[in-house]
Every structure is written in structure tokens, then in C-alpha cells.
Amino acid sequence: MKIQHNIAGIENLGEIEFQKRVFVMPWEERIFGIHVAMMALSSHLDTDSVPDYSISTVPTTFKSTWTWGHLRMGAEGMNPFDYFKFRYYEKWLGGISGFFIEEGYITEEELDAKTALYLEDGNLDNAPLPDKLEPAIDEQVIKYLREGDSPERDIATKPKFAVGDKIRVKSIPPTDHTRLPGNLQGKIGIIDVVYDAPYTYFFPTTDGLGKPMPVYNVKFEAIELWGEMAEPNNVYYNDLFETYLEAA
After folding, report:
1. What span, in angstroms and rounded, lies between the C-alpha atoms of 171 and 1?
2. Is pTM, for the whole model, over 0.90?
3. Which has more pLDDT, 190 or 130?
4. Cys staple from 28: which of 23, 187, 222, 246, with CB 3.0 to 4.6 Å?
């Protein structure tokens, strides 16, 4: 887990700006919309999604797989100094831009040229939308917004742990992407809830995610996580995939 995702309980990080507005700048709404459209048109929806989608019938030139996991992977891969320097949606913009370059939709030179054009024009917040819009794409995006893409799977699995079991969170080396909070590694907790259905993940990760597996709500004593800094008699709960747990 990169340092920027492993700061729970650390003191003296400086003043935190609590922003109440969802979007501070108009362009942030645009980048959010791009991300949503990419999820709604992701190629994995055509073969492995709940509910079913028929992406192959949608007239889109976007042929890649893009999920929340891919967005997070871009942020996790950032240099920690850059991560803390940029605003929230600037990180989104960087991750999405890098993805389009890696997938071959645009070259770095083309992106730099377009960026320079908008900077010269000084009209960053009102860049024109494409003239030609496809109603079928809009319909798919709206359908996705309404119905989503559930990771829950209707298959039989036998959970390894039961309510009340004492577990230890595995210590896993840093990977390209993980759903395991760094400050939980090696800590002892108690299984509080065993969820009824198994859950899959959007794509395989090097630390064990991908195939449907049981998920648990685990209770940790605050003192277990933060030692003497913890307030007494407090507990912390976290949903964790089975692959991250072992018997204590």
C-alpha cells in the first residue's frame, strides 16, 4: 500500500481543508461525466455484469474496460508528493488522461497540443462538446446510472470464517492495486458479519482479488490499530475480502 493510502491515525499532517461542495470548478463536473460514461461503456459489461448489458450493440468507439478500480489504480500509482499536491479531480484527470494514452485513443503529443490550445484560449471551463451525439450512448449511460454494476454474485460459497472468529489481517507487500487498507495489515479483529453472498472484483489483482469470494465485516478495537493514541472503548469496522484474512 503506497504511503498516501496508509495515513490513518497519523498526527501532525497539517491543516485539512474541508470542502462542502461536490464540484468546486466547472471542469470537475466534466471529468466526472467522462468517468461515468467510461464506466457505462466499459467492455466488461458485455460479458460479466449484473445486470446484463449489451455493450456490443452500442455505437461507441470506446472498447476498453474501465471501472472504479481502474480509477483508484491511477491514484495509487501516483508519486506521493504529487498525490498530496493535486486536488481530488485533478487526480481523476491525470489517471483518465494516462489511461487514454496507454490504450491508444490519443498520443501524449496530441494531448499536449490540445491542452496548450485550451490554455492559450483561456476558456478551460467552456470547452465545446462534440457536435455529433449518439442517442444510444446517452441511453446506455442513463441505464447504467440507474442500474449500476453489482459485484454481488449468486453462487454457492462456503465462508472460511464465522461470526465471532478471531482473525488476523495478512501483511501483503505493496501491489499495483489493492482494497486492503495499509493500517489494518497484521492487526487482530473479530468477524462481526458474514455477508450472505460472495462478491467479485472488477479485475484480478496481484494480491488475490478477482474471483467471487466471501466478504466479512470485521470489528477492530481502536487500541489495536492506534495504540495509546486511540480513545478508550472505541471500535472500528471494515468490510474485507476473505483473501486478506487468516485465522489468528
Report:
1. 10
2. no
3. 190
4. 23
